[in-house]
Design the sequence.
């Protein structure tokens, strides 16, 4: 789902078209030609943020690591909010650390630009089935007949997870950082309340407890799960649970994948749950999507408040 060509206009339609041509060259497997076109474009528009970012990607594809780093650094210097994720690219290239949540501006830009085609790309291109798998995991812990008085859909996006859980909860709240995604979720008319907010900020300020908190493919944008699980645990009702999916890998810690999503080792998930005083009620491997014709390795988790 992640495209390297998230776009911020140069302000010149001609140069914007050259950007699109370069992006097309990249899509056809011609990174050197794309880089040359972008270098000519940037000579005329040295403050073209998206141009520098795409040049970094083109140089990466051409095997020019140092040149890619230089281009990403220029993009980041021009846009300190890092709306395009240049800092993440630099982290993946080993030039800086990737720590904490991904930049808010990057996540908002990413999903605002994908909102109109988000469902189609996930379902049709990536065969996404995260909500269905999470619901099955919840059923294994609580049974298929369990209803939840109050549920929270973290990073609700367009409402795919909420749609699956709507019939199981009396009150459904959704929160997301992207206004465009929330507008799509609102059209589904399944949420009792929608909030535009960062999920950590929302959990830190929300006062009413939830019987169920769900996060479908949301924690892939966080590295350390302990802080968010700690906050989620504070917002759980006495018999509540948090259910979520993550991408994973065979190691112990957290890695930043080429897709610019974090993958969490199972030991990290278990340690973060323990640190948040949550019991692991369910933890199993499960792939929520297909990428490059292969299942993306993942984990499905249901955590409950530790028994006193």
Sequence:
């Amino acid at each position: 789902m992640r495209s390297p060509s998230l776009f911020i206009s140069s302000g010149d339609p001609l140069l914007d078209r050259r950007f699109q041509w370069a992006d097309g060259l990249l899509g056809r497997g011609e990174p050197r030609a794309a880089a040359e076109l972008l270098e000519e474009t940037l000579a005329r528009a040295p403050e073209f943020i998206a141009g520098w970012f795409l040049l970094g990607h083109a140089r990466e594809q051409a095997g020019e690591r140092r040149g890619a780093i230089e281009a990403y650094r220029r993009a980041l210097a021009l846009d300190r909010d890092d709306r395009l994720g240049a800092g993440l690219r630099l982290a993946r290239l080993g030039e800086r650390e990737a720590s904490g949540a991904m930049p808010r501006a990057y996540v908002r830009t990413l999903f605002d630009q994908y909102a109109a085609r988000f469902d189609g790309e996930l379902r049709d291109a990536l065969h996404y089935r995260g909500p269905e798998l999470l619901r099955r995991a919840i059923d294994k812990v609580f049974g298929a007949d369990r209803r939840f008085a109050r549920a929270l859909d973290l990073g609700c996006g367009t409402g795919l997870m909420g749609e699956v859980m709507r019939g199981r909860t009396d009150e459904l709240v959704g929160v997301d950082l992207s206004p465009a995604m929330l507008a799509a979720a609102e059209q589904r008319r399944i949420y009792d309340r929608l909030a535009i907010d960062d999920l950590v900020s929302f959990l830190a300020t929300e006062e009413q407890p939830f019987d169920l908190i769900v996060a479908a493919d949301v924690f892939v944008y966080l590295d350390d799960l302990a802080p968010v699980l700690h906050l989620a645990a504070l917002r759980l009702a006495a018999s509540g649970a948090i259910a979520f999916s993550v991408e994973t890998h065979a190691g112990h810690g957290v890695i930043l994948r080429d897709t610019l999503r974090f993958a969490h080792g199972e030991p990290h998930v278990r340690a973060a749950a323990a640190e948040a005083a949550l019991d692991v009620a369910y933890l199993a491997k499960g792939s929520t999507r297909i990428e490059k014709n292969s299942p993306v390795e993942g984990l499905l988790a249901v955590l409950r408040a530790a028994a006193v």
In short: The chain has a mean pLDDT of 91. The chain has two domains: 13-97, 118-305. Residues 13-27 form the longest helix (15 residues). The longest strand covers residues 236-247.
